[in-house]
Write a structure and sequence with these properties.
mainly beta, Maltoporin, Chain A, 2 domains, 23-stranded mixed beta barrel, 7% helix, 53% strand, globular, disordered C terminus
């Protein structure tokens, strides 16, 4: 009886388990991409806690799924995520396979040109895209920021205006960095005070891709978008690994690192990352008495959450904190952190900059039938700095809101937007001084700028698209300012595209926030007049041709552009001991030609070659009405970008090479002083020599769970202040291995470093 009872119990349990399994379904499948298998890829059901990873052969299996309709998402680093709609039925096993395309070769989805999603090929605006995969291929991710990454785009360069503190900005087609709008997820929060040092605090670890528009975009993005727009798209928490780490050390006494987690918070997805860096080596290879590279400590903390909503509408919120301690000068100032106690000394020259920055930004799509969305941001930037004995203290708070309504009428895709921007700025310079009854008082500059814009994308025919728009802003000091634009896209065939662009731009004065030359040197500042907003108009023509042949396929992209400025504010350094700021009584213009060739062979070889020829001049009339024309400072007459990669598929090795080439550019006229402090008769050279930077990186996949990277940065460098880097990186999925590269490399300059890196991803 006992035995019979036990058998009965077993039969009941077997029946119940079979019954329960019959009430759920299963998912199976395989993931492939550039390789036959994609191991350790992420597969999950949207808005659930159900998911898994593929095994070493790219296979996956998800069990016990409740019946219903689902969206299954597959993602893998360096590839475009893919979604599929499925219906799970009880007791059935569903087979769903994925083939993910590489993000570097696909027609990317972009949002910057028209504030809505479209493909690069379909956009009326010419847009360059750099993905995280491309950045990781050519740059060590732990040590790189957006400043280094944007230089992979032809016509975009880093400009260093101060040889001691290394104030840097991003120049587009030869125009100063203050003319480029820097966006984070479509929201303009970088500019003014943050344009000098804030961009260093955007690590590559948080970037999914960035999009570059060369040419005025003030119609959509307002002031600061005169030269172009760089929109940094942060990573989507849904597609990130649960944990990742990337730590790098070097013989330059540097330490850099990224650490990130991507937890699921119920049905919501989050991403939290920390980037840190430490550099504390003094080197003076050109023997000018000052360090060749800036020393710094920094930490950047980033967090983003995509909230679950039953309507599947967008609600994202992100925050970033950045702190930097930057210093340079003579050796006695930097060594053993002496600057901590002697900041502001008039005996030992050095520069020390403390930066604190906080940002909050995101988007919210309203739960309505109409396509309504709000973009918002809030930032606070604090700077405490000494340039020699010159103290500069500044703070800036910016609040921004953008309300968008997108709808369609027949063949018209219409976007209407209203913007509100509040900008509060204060510093200890004459920029925020006011004289009342003979007394000088502090007068912070507070600006409230409302604006409205409308854009119409009209599909005239299958092959012709017309995009028109206009923006109207109101400034307290300058009144109403408008900015129109017109873009035409013509497809003469499936493989041939022409784009014709006209646009205007305007730039409101942010004199001291964007140019720190007045405190970094021993010059007296003179503001000759009430400064008016700068204005510009731009013409450009773009030709894109896709082709097959030469053992593969590729594209040729040609562009000609012309920009004309009036009221341009030009700092005059020609009088020793002074910087004179005034609106130009003439005009300035930039014109040039750009060419890009991309080619992918049927063998695993690809390359990109970009060249940019530029003429940037400013013309003014002297007291005798004679026009004087001279080159704009720091605008290279020509530049180029080269990148190439080759895969040894059987050995699972990838070889990648990139180079940035910079031609001669005009430099400020600087006079050295004699022992009495009197300027010498002859100035330093006013034109730079051409230089180039080269990088080489080799990656090796070992088994299926980790990869090894070996690279050389800046070999055969023609820039005397740039030193070489040899680095070794190990990326792993399940465990950590520390490696060190102890040997030296013979290079063209004296400073060589060996680097070891740990990277972990799971």
């Amino acid at each position: 009886m006992n035995m019979q009872f036990r058998c009965l119990i077993l039969l009941i349990f077997a029946f119940l388990s079979t019954f329960c399994m019959a009430q759920t379904g299963e998912l199976k499948g395989h993931l492939s991409g550039e390789s036959e298998h994609l191991p350790f890829a992420n597969i999950y059901l949207r808005n659930t806690n159900t998911g898994t990873t593929s095994n070493e052969l790219g296979n996956y299996h998800i069990q016990n799924i409740e019946p219903g309709n689902y969206t299954i998402i597959a993602s893998f680093v360096g590839h475009i995520s893919q979604k599929k709609q499925i219906v799970i039925k009880a007791g059935e096993t569903h087979i769903v396979n994925f083939n993910l395309s590489s993000s570097s070769t696909l027609d990317e989805i972009v949002v910057t040109g028209t504030m809505k999603e479209t493909y690069v090929s379909a956009s009326p605006i010419k847009i360059d895209v750099v993905t995280s995969k491309k950045m990781d291929t050519y740059l060590p991710s732990a040590a790189s920021s957006v400043i280094e990454s944007v230089q992979l785009v032809n016509g975009v360069q880093e400009v260093v205006a101060c040889g001691v503190c290394y104030t840097n900005s991003i120049s587009v087609n030869g125009l100063p960095g203050s003319y480029t709008a820097i966006l984070m997820d479509g929201t303009p929060i970088y500019g003014s005070l943050a344009s000098v040092y804030g961009l260093n605090g955007i690590p590559n670890m948080i970037i999914d891709r960035f999009e570059v528009i060369k040419g005025p975009s003030s119609t959509l993005y307002g002031s600061e978008a005169v030269a172009g727009v760089i929109n940094i798209i942060t990573k989507n928490p849904e597609s990130q690994p649960l944990f990742s780490a990337d730590i790098m050390t070097s013989s330059h006494e540097e330490v850099f690192g990224n650490i990130a987690v991507a937890p699921r918070l119920g049905k919501s997805n989050a991403y939290v990352g920390m980037n840190f860096g430490y550099a504390n080596l003094y080197a003076d290879n050109n023997f000018d008495g000052f360090g060749d590279g800036v020393n710094s400590d920094h930490i950047s903390i980033f967090s983003k959450i995509n909230f679950y909503r039953p309507s599947d509408k967008l609600f994202s919120l992100a925050a970033k904190f950045y702190y930097e301690d930057r210093r340079n000068g003579v050796e006695a100032y930097v060594k053993d952190r002496a600057y901590k106690t002697i900041r502001g000394s008039d005996q030992i020259y050095g520069e020390s900059i403390y930066t604190n920055r906080f940002e909050l930004f995101g988007s919210y799509a309203l739960d309505t039938k109409a396509n309504l969305k709000i973009d918002y941001s809030l930032s606070n930037h604090e700077q405490d700095s000494y340039y020699g004995d010159q103290f500069f203290e500044a703070s800036q708070q910016i609040a921004f809101g953008n309300f968008l309504w997108n709808f369609n009428i027949d063949k018209h895709d219409i976007l209407i937007g209203t913007t509100l921007r509040y900008d509060a700025y204060d510093d200890n310079t004459l920029a925020t001084e006011n004289e009342i009854d003979g007394d000088i008082i502090n007068a912070p500059n507070n600006q409230f700028v409302p604006g409205v814009f409308v854009q119409d994308e009209f599909g005239i025919s299958e092959n012709i698209t017309l995009l028109g728009g206009i923006r109207l802003d109101h400034h307290q000091e300058h009144g109403l300012i408008y900015a129109p634009r017109l873009n035409v896209k013509v497809n003469t065939s499936d493989w041939t595209t022409f784009r014709f662009n006209f646009g205007t731009g305007f730039k409101v004065v942010n004199l001291f926030t964007e140019d720190h030359a007045f405190v970094t040197g021993q010059r007296e500042v003179l503001i000759a007049e009430n400064l008016e907003p700068e204005s510009s108009y731009n013409f450009s023509v773009n030709y894109n041709q896709v082709y097959t042949g030469l053992g593969g396929s590729g594209s040729i992209d040609l562009e000609g552009f012309y920009t004309h400025f009036t009221n341009k504010i030009i700092p005059d350094y020609d009088i020793p001991g002074f910087i004179i700021y005034e609106n130009s009584n003439g005009f300035a213009r930039t014109m040039g030609l750009s060419m890009n060739i991309n080619h992918n062979f049927t063998i695993p070889l690809s390359f990109n070659i970009g060249m940019n020829v530029l003429k940037s001049t400013e013309t003014e009339s002297d007291l005798t009405d004679t026009e004087i024309t001279k080159d704009i400072l720091f605008a290279p007459r020509w530049s180029g970008v080269i990148s190439s990669s080759y895969q040894f598929k059987r050995q699972r090795i990838t070889l990648a090479y990139t180079a940035q080439i910079t031609g001669p550019m005009a430099l400020p006229e600087v006079y050295d002083l004699d022992e009495s402090g009197t300027p010498l008769e002859a100035s330093r050279p006013t034109t730079s020599i051409p230089f180039s930077l080269h990088q080489l990186q080799v990656s090796k996949m070992i088994q299926n769970n980790y990869s090894l990277y070996l690279g050389i940065n800046n070999f055969e460098s023609r820039c005397p202040l740039v030193s070489q880097n040899l680095f070794l990186t190990l990326n792993l999925k399940k465990f950590v291995v520390l490696s060190w590269c102890p040997f030296e490399l013979c290079c063209s300059t004296n400073n060589t470093s060996a680097v070891s890196t740990i990277s972990l991803s799971s």
